[in-house]
Input
Amino acid sequence: MRSLVILTMVGGLVATVAIPAYAASTRMPIEDSQTLQQMSAVDAQSLVVASDASGTELARDSYSATTEDEINKKKAAEAAAARARAQAAAAAASSSVSSVPVNINLVSPGTGEVRWPILNFTKGRGIGDSGYHQGVDLLAPGGTPLYAAAAGVVRIAQEAYGGYGVAVVIDHVIAGQRVSTLYGHMTYGSRQVVAGQSVEAGQLIGLVGSTGSSTANHLHFEVRVNNGLVDPWAWLVANAG
Output
C-alpha cells in the first residue's frame, strides 16, 4: 500500500512537468510560421520615382581618369604643358635680350695686351667711393657690349654671382703677374662665355645690365693683381691701348 502511494505521487509530478512543455511545443502550428522576409514585408521601404525622371548618358570627358595608365597619361600631359609654358617664358626673356642690336663678332678696338672692357661710357663711382666699393662703375645703356680686358681663362660665369648679379671673372697672366678681372651686373642671358673657356683680349663676353645689387645700367669692373685689389680705373688708364 505504501509503495502504491509513492508511485502515484511520482506519476503526478511527471505529468505536471511534461504538460506545459508539450503545450509550448504545440502553441504555434507549422502553417503559421513566417520567414524573415515575410516578417519584414510590412515595414519594407519603398521608392517612388517621378514620372518625368530621365536617364543621362555619360560622356567620355564627364569623369576623371581612374586607372593607373590614365592617371600617368594625365600627369604626362600636365608636365608637357608646364614645360611648354616655361619654354615660352624663356623665349620671351631671351627675345628681350636679342632685341638689343649687337654684333657678337665685335671686339674692343686696340692692339695692346690690355683693352678697355667697354666703350662710350660715363665714369661713375670709383674704388672706395660711397663705402666699401671695390671697383669702378662705368655707366652705359643696357645692352652695350662688354669685352675681355685681356686674354685669359674664364673662372666664373654665372647668372647670379652674389651682389654682382650676372657676372664673369677672368684670370690672366700679364707681364708675369697673375691678374683677375671681374665684370658685374650684366643683362640676364647675355653671357657669351662659360667657365673654363679661353678668351682673347677684346673678345665679347656679355652686355651691360642692372642685375644683382644695382639701381642703374652699368659695368662694375674690378681688378686684382697677385690676389691684391687695385684701383681698376688707374690700371686701365696705365695699361689699356
Summary: The chain has four helices and ten strands. The helical segments are 2-25, 36-40, 68-98, 232-239. The longest strand covers residues 177-186. The two ends are 158 Å apart (CA to CA).
